[in-house]
Every structure is written in structure tokens, then in C-alpha cells.
Amino acid sequence: MPRLTGAGRTRTLLPWRGERMALMAVGLLPAALYFWYGAQDRLGPDPVNVFERWLGLWAVRFLLAALLVTPLRVVSGVSLLRYRRVLGLLAFWYALMHVSVYVALDQQGNLAVLWHDITRRPFLMLGFAAFMLLLPLALTSNDWSIRRLGRRWGRLHQLVYGVAVLVAVHFLLAFKTYNATSVSYAAALMAMVLWRAVFLARARMRRAVP
Amino acid sequence: MARWSYPRPLAGEITPHGLWLSRRRLLAGATLGMAVGSGPRAFAAALHTRPGPFQAPEKPTPLQDVTHYNNFYEFGLDKTDPSTRSGRFHVRPWTVSVEGLVAHPRVWDIDALIAAMPVEERLYRMRCVEAWSMVIPWDGFPLASLLALAEPLGSARYVAFESVVRPAEMPGQTGGLDSLAWPYVEGLRLDEAMHPLTLLAVGLYGETLPNQNGAPVRLVVPWKYGFKGIKSITRIRLVEKMPPTTWNQMNPAEYGFFANVNPDVDHPRWSQASERVIGAGGFFGGGRKKTLMFNGYGEQVAGLYGNMNLRRFY
Predict the structure, then answer these.
(1) Which of A91, B7, B29, B50 pairs as cysteine with A62 (C-beta 3.0–4.6 A)?
(2) B178–chain A Cβ distance below 8 A for any pair
(3) What is the pLDDT of residue A107?
């Protein structure tokens, strides 16, 4: 079984670092672009809603990209492992912006409404839970934490599969009907979770039967 | 006895519709040599109406927003789909059948219908179930005027509406993942249908309805969520039992038959206490306001519901 965590960590030389910083910068462009449009009132008649959904969509895209890294390596041998942490962090930054826009621009900081929403609506509870689970992952996505946590780091970061399930359902519920966009993203996320479960089960079997 | 009250123009101030039509024909005839009674399609673009009794203090939502941001699932799920994908939709010739429990069923030609009805402008607030709102100057006539001609029988309790099915012209109706059952159907209780606020709109901003807004004729019930406003109506049927309605069938826990705007009864997935005002401008336009009971039309319509439990019958 290929090592799923920590690999690529030895290559924290400057060129790689610059490469990853560039990826982070490029990854943030969609948000910057739409913020620019929004500030100029070019996001149509319902700009806050468009921006909020755009940020959520990109959070899902980066989460999916991060989850694709391992299956891609196992299936094709192409390893993008050194970019995975950036992809995961991008998912987190987009989730943070998504939540911020919901709180500050959409609900205009109305705490009573926010509390009411988060405590009663499964749709928002799922989204909020996903964001809460992403927090410890984002906070430990650095070399120091990886060294410090050792094997526990890998176990902690298995939480991302919980995030994927929560996000898949949250994303499906964000639309009034099932549609091509929501169903395909949710299916892709669930496929990553399933793939991982099967992959782990097989690895365990191989170890059990030497 | 009318429970509602609103300013009414003096009878003498209103130009009889027929007279107004004949003036139009005279003008058209003088320049184009058109015969009296020739195709009413001559009125297609500019729909001449007069100010109606119901106005609103709010500023109307810009025409561009009204016509480029709306739901019309027959053309797709996106808010921009109706305006970009409705070009192939043909709204002439068109008939509207008034049938069922009525003394005088009739299949109306749309232009004959528009010519026969008192078309007037009404500025209505529009509250979508998705928690956004607009203020739209509709042109139309009270549904009650049409129903009066049909004379509902004593056994009629509800009005069922049916929209058009034309997959060749409506890309949202062609297979795939589209999850609404076609045709789109809606319904009202007879007293709701007869209420003077209930409008069959044939235009907006003084012109005939654009395809994307439900041409050639659509329902507007301003104290209910927007999805009650069935578009491109082909059939109006008086019935005895509560008719099925599209969104209610799709998800009964989220969309009721009545669908009255009610800030105290939330959608399971979001609050209905406030709404985003469409066209408020940019991120910081402050475009959110409190939602009003019955969308602010309580004075006119609250009496329809008496002691009904509006939490149960949402």
C-alpha cells in the first residue's frame, strides 16, 4: 500500500514551495474575479447569492481535487501529492469565504437569524459541521504539525472523508431540484469516499492474508 | 359586501376598453388601411393599459432584472435560462380553454381574450419562495372577470391551471435530469381565484409579456409565493376537489398548496423572515428587508383564511 500521508514532505525546497504558492495564488483567482465583479455590480440582479454560491462551488471543486490525488496516483501512477495540501487549503479558504459571505453579506450579521438557521435547518447544520471539521485539518496543514503529530496526523486527516459526505448532502440540498450540477458533484465526492473505503479494506485484507 | 378596500377611479375617468380599442383601430386604419376587426396582433408590442387600483409604494424592479432573473423550469434550472433559452417558444397562435364546472365553457383565442378583458396596470410585490423579491408593474385583468363570463357552477370549489408542454421549444422539458413533471400545474381555492387582487397578466412594463416571463398569459397572486404564478397557461378548469400542484407534488414537506407568504413559517431549508431585494445593486446595496405577512396584502386577503391554521396549511 502506498504511503498516503507525509510523502513529498522531504521536497520542501524553494522551487517546490514557489510552485505551490503559485498554485495557491491561481486557485484564489476565481474568488478575486467575482469579488471584483461584485464590487462593480456586475454579478447580476442578485449578486450576494451569486457570489455565495460561486465560493461554495469552488470549495467543492478544490475538495474534490484534493480527494482525487490518491486515486489518480494509484490508477495512473501520476503523483500530484505535493500539491494536495494546497488543494485542501484552497478548499478551506473557499469554505471560509463562503461562510463569511453568508454571515456578513447575506444575513448581514443578524445573529438571531444565524443561530436560528444553524440550530434548526439540516441543510445549514450539514454545511456548518463540514466547515467545523475542516478547521482542524486546515490548522494542521503545515510541516510543523505533520512532524509533531506523526502517525496521528494521517488519522486526523481521515476526517476529510466525513467532510466529503457532509458537503455532498449539503450541496444536493442547496438546489430546489436534483440537477446535473449538484448530482454529479455529489456523486463524485461519494465516489472518492467509496474508493477510499474499498482501497483500505483491500489493503487490510492483503495484510491479514500474508 | 367587499372586505377589501382600495382606491377606485371614478367611473367617468375610465375609458371604456372597447372605445379605446376602436380608437387604436382608427389610428392604425388611418395609416395602414387596416380594416376594423382585423388581427389584434397589431397590439402585440405595446400593450395599452390603464392604471389599475392596486399600486405599491416601492420602486419597481428594473425591467432588465425582471426579464433576466427568474425561474421558468420549462427552459432550464438557472435564473438566466428563461431569457437565453426561450427564443424558440411560439406564443401565437394560442388558446386558453376555460372548462370544467362552468355554465359556459369556452376555448379562447388569446388575442380575443385580451381584447375582451379590462387590461390594467398593477404594481405588485413579488416574493419568491427562495427568499428574494421584486416589485413588478404587471398588465393584466382580474381572473374574476374571466371566471364571471364562464359562470362557475355551485359545485365548483377550486380552479386548476395547466401550462404548456412543448419539449421542442422548451429545452427544460427534454429528458435529462429535469425533475419536474410536465405540464406544470397549479391551483387556487375558488374564493382566492375570485379575489380582485388575483391577476391574469398579459404584459409587464406596458408591453406584452416576454417569452421568459410566461407569455402569453400567466397567473399573478401577489400574496402567495411566486411559484403559484403558473406561466404560459393553456387550460383553466373549475373543479370540485383540491387539484394537484407541481411543487407540492415534487416536495410536499417544503411547498404547500396555499403557499401564502408567511415570515413565521420557514422553509425547511431557509428562513422566510426576510428577503433579498433584487436589483438593489452590488454587494453592499443593503438589499435585504423583512418579509411581510401575506407579502403586505393582509388587509385585502387575511379574511380569506379566517381561523385557518396557516402553520399547518402552509
Answers:
(1) A91
(2) yes
(3) 86
Residue with cell 475538495: A63
The b/e string for A86-111 (b: 16+ C-beta within 10 A; e otherwise) is bbbbbbbbbbbbbbebbeebbbeebe
Regarding predicted confidence, which is higher, B45 or A159? A159
Q: What confidence score (pLDDT) does residue B284 get? A: 72
Instruction: Outline where chain B has alpha helix (H).
Output: 17-32, 63-68, 81-85, 110-116, 143-150, 190-194, 246-250, 298-301
| Residue B82 pLDDT | 96
Closest-CA residue in chain B for A114?
A: B271
Q: Which of B27, B272, B26, B13 is nearest to B127 (CA)?
A: B272
Best probe of the B interface among A176, A177, A179, A183, by most B CBs < 10 A, is A176
Give the distance, in angstroms, between the CA of residue B67 and the centroid of all CA atoms in the same chain: 14
Q: Note whether B250 contacts A: Cβ–Cβ < 8 A.
A: yes
Binary contact (B177, A173; C-beta < 8 A) = no
Distance from CA of A49 to the nearest CA of B (A): 9
- Mean per-residue pLDDT of chain B: 86
* Mean pLDDT computed over B91-106: 98
Percent of chain B beyond pLDDT 90? 70
Residue in chain A closest to B255 (alpha carbons) equals: A176
| Cα–Cα dist B71/B78, whole Å | 7
Q: Is B104 exposed, middle or buried (0-12, 13-18, 19+ CB in 10 A)?
A: exposed
Which residues of chain A carry a pLDDT beneath 50? 1-14
Domains observed in chain B:
16-45 (no CATH), 51-304 (3.90.420.10)
* Helix (DSSP H) and strand (DSSP E) numbers for chain B: 8, 13
Q: What ipTM was predicted for this assembly?
A: 0.74
**d(C-alpha B300, C-alpha B223), whole Å:** 9
Whether residue A177 and residue B282 make contact (CB cut-off 8 A), yes or no, is no
Write out chain B residues lying below 8 Å of A122, CB-based. Answer: 268-269
Tens of pLDDT, residues B102-161 = 999 999 999 999 999 999 999 999 999 999 999 999 999 999 999 999 999 999 999 999
The annotation status of B213 as a binding-site residue, yes or no, is yes
Q: Where are the domains of chain A?
A: 14-208
* B273 touches A: beta carbon within 8 Å: yes
**B253 shares contact with chain A (CB less than 8 Å):** no
How far is CA B54 from its chain centroid? 14
Give the H or E element holding residue B275. strand B274-277
On the question of pLDDT at B52 being above 90, the answer is no
List chain B residues with CB under 8 Å of A45: 61-62, 64-65, 68-69, 278-279
* Mutation site for A-interface testing, chosen from B69, B77, B178, B270 by largest number of A Cβ within 10 Å: B77
Report the distance separating Cα A134 and Cα A96, nearest Å: 10
Q: Are B217 and B208 in contact (CB under 8 A)?
A: no
The DSSP H or E segment spanning B163 is strand B158-163
